[in-house]
Amino acid sequence: MDNQTKTITLPSGRIATLRQGRGRDLIKAHRAVASDPEPIAVSFALIAELAMIDGRQIVYEDLLAMELDDVLALESEVMEPRNENFPGAANQR
């Protein structure tokens, strides 16, 4: 399995490493917030599944406490089409 990653510098200066997601990551994100009625909760849970910040795996609650600029940067990277953020991913199967 390919574990393609992308590293970005967040507006705060922290370093985020994002791995390419899989369907199982989306399922885990849905399960993690099944009891949370907030629509954005799945997005936050998915970001937590795929991102490391400064070399440390994050959890959903970390995103809730994070500066908004950083959260929006992570959300943009995770929710944009994969071929934009992981150039080689479109040709992989």
Task: Write the topology of this structure.
Layout (H helix, E strand, L loop, with lengths): L4 E5 L5 E5 L3 H10 L8 H10 E3 L2 E2 L2 H6 L2 H12 L2 H4 L8
Antiparallel strand pairs: 1-2, 2-3, 3-4
Helix pairs in contact: 1-2, 2-4
Short description:
The chain has 93 residues and is an alpha+beta fold.
Task: Describe the model.
With 93 residues, the chain is of the alpha+beta class. 45% of the residues lie in helices and 16% in strands. A four-stranded antiparallel sheet has the order 1-2-3-4. Helix 1 (23-32) crosses helix 2 (41-50). The chain is globular. The model has no long low-confidence stretch (mean pLDDT 87).
In one word, what is the shape? globular
Structural class: alpha+beta
Total tally of structural domains = 1
Q: How many DSSP H or I helices?
A: 5
What portion of residues belong to β-strands? 15-25%
Percent of residues in helices: 40-55%
Which structural traits does this protein have?
single chain; globular; 93 residues; alpha+beta; 4-stranded antiparallel β-sheet; 5 helices
